[in-house]
Design a protein that fits this description.
This protein has 134 residues and is an alpha+beta fold. It contains one helix and twelve strands; from the N terminus they run H-E-E-E-E-E-E-E-E-E-E-E-E.
Amino acid sequence: MKRILIFVASALLLHATGASSAAFPDPPAAATRNVNWVKSKSGSWAANKEGKSFWYRLDRNARIWWSPDGHEWAEVTDGMWADKQDRWLKIGEGKLWWTADAGKNFEEVPEWKWQGPRGEWYKFDAKWTLWVAH
């Protein structure tokens, strides 16, 4: 009986640990695999909003613009976009922030990296240049 309880408790602990890591996956790390970061030619990244795909990009003042087709662009009034895990990202105070609780609490994005809707990884450098992992 003790063994069964220990087994069940261990299984629940492993499941809980796996669930939390799936909700906030780590960005690709060069130490664990060979990640080749390339400067984005277009300066735009893919993201979803309300179930639709959009392209996003920054202007010189770090304002966010979006486009459904990559041709006609409009400023994003709230300055936010969503990553693959539906965390909202924004730029403010010279940093990249995200929230997982509908904007109640924001924290700085580690290494300014996030995952796009198709599993691709993006990051900004200190000059707000966009990089894509290949």
